[in-house]
Amino acid sequence: MEKELDKVVEEIMSTPNVSGCLVADHQGLCLASKGTAHVDSAGLIVALSEQACKIQPNFKPPTVCLETDTKICLIQRHGTITGAVYKQKA
To answer: Mind telling me which GO cellular component terms the entry cites (predicted)?
Structure first.
């Protein structure tokens, strides 16, 4: 599974304007991190996703978008895995 995860992370990192990628399990354990994504933020990213899911619990998990003047962080949960993609604004 680790090779498959590395392949997915590399594919995400090759996307234009992507500066970082992080994947974590449901307990906040970082499974993969590349670029500007910090391993230490895995627990916080999972917690943000979990809180967003509580807004409408009967729907699929929402995508959380954190935005600054120059960067965007997109957080999405799929089952027990949560991913975050860090992008530079174009």
So the answer is: lysosome; Ragulator complex
Q: Report the share of the chain in percent with pLDDT over 70.
A: 99
Measure CA of the first residue to CA of the last residue in the chain; give whole Å: 33
The pair phi, psi for residue 26, each rounded to 5°, is -65, -15
How far, rounded to the nearest angstrom, does the alpha carbon of residue 43 sit from its chain's CA centroid? 11
The helix or strand, by DSSP H or E, that contains position 85, with its residue range, turns out to be: strand 81-88
50/16 Cα distance (integer angstroms): 28
The answer on pLDDT for 81 being more than 70 is yes
The total number of residues shown for the chain amounts to 90
DSSP secondary structure of 30-54: EEEEEET--GGGHHHHHHHHHHHHT
Half-sphere exposure of 11 (CA within 13 A, CB side): 6
Instruction: Give yes or no for a contact between 88 and 35, defined as CB atoms under 8 angstroms apart.
Output: no
